[in-house]
Amino acid sequence: MQKIKIIEDDLSIASELKEMLENAGYIVGITEDFSNILDQLKKEKPNLILLDINLPKTNGEILLQQIRKEMNIPIIMVTSKNSEADEVLSMSYGADDYITKPYNPTILLLRIGAVLNRSNKTNEKKFYRDLEVIPQKGVLKKEQDEIILTKNEMIIFLYLLYNQHKIVTRDELMTDLWNNNEYINDNALTVNISRLRAKLKEIGYQDAIETRKGQGYILHE
Asked: 212 pairs with which residues across the strands?
């Protein structure tokens, strides 16, 4: 079972969240001591964190930055602030998603599921033909040979890999990059695709990515 840590100073809200999440099948912990949250997280090793912005002794966005320096746990910001600036700031600091109070419980559960699913995909071993894909290191590995991809190149390659049996449009790729907090325009996408193709060609995969004119791209098996 997957563990969720709630970092919320309003005990009534935290208790309601805990009950809802436990009913959905999660193991849930509530933060009561806000003086050593990082140490708690290192000890408990949750699969996901629900983090409020307004906290005693610290600010949730500052804590988010501190967590990101120490560990790679998926984080959803849960806050009463309905501000686009807060959302952009949280996402730029490394939040995986953002939801405002009062939230729809079903929507929150769906977002938690989506973030955990993305996290699991990132951590599991992946292969393309005889290439091992290692997203955490930004590497494609073939026996002793490795090619290093930029973050954007890896996001594009993974999206093509997950959708290997269909044509992927340019809009879909740019939306996926946006969802991963990478802001990219149409020209930059073309450059990233070209660089990715060149790197794949270096290790013998010159036919990997095909352009379908007026449609998009497809990754060949």
From this structure: 216
